[in-house]
Specification:
193 residues, globular, three-stranded antiparallel beta sheet, 7 helices, alpha+beta, Arc Repressor Mutant, subunit A, 2 domains
Length: 193
Amino acid sequence: MERASDDELPNALIPLFKGVVYADASPEAWRAILSLLPRIRDYVRVLGLDVILDEAERYAFLRQRAEEPDGSEPVRRLVPRRPLSYPVSLLLVLLRKRLAQHDASGGDTRLVLSREQIVDMVRVFLAAGPNEARLEDQIDTYIRRVEELGFLRALKEENASLYEVRRILRAFVNADWLADLESTYREHAQRGG
């Protein structure tokens, strides 16, 4: 791999500061990140950030460090955390579970779901009211939010609304707490909350 020059550092940093960098969507930024990774790590460490890079899945992003390794006071957060709503969190958990099932079955590395499949997955956990169309509209809102967060990518199809579940979801929704969270949501849905 060629040694990157100093003027390439912004080509790697700026896309990372904007969000997740996927190799297939931003090949130039991806190459710059790979070639400058040690320098990028040093640069963002000063800001209290870590570079999370998965070469197998071909994505990279920045994550706020929880605390300093030496145990000193943590660096202030650059971006405040915002809690997700129950339905959006639920959708993320259900998509992560579906991704784990898909990975276990082998086959294609991409998980593509139709809008109807996603609606059916979520509908089970949400309180059904007299207006089914309204419930579907709400679920569409949750799908759009998850798409904005970068965990779903709409695919262009003529007669169907298809979504690819982005594999970066595995880095954000930890498999260890997946089962506990799902049971909590199931109890919440049964109580009618």
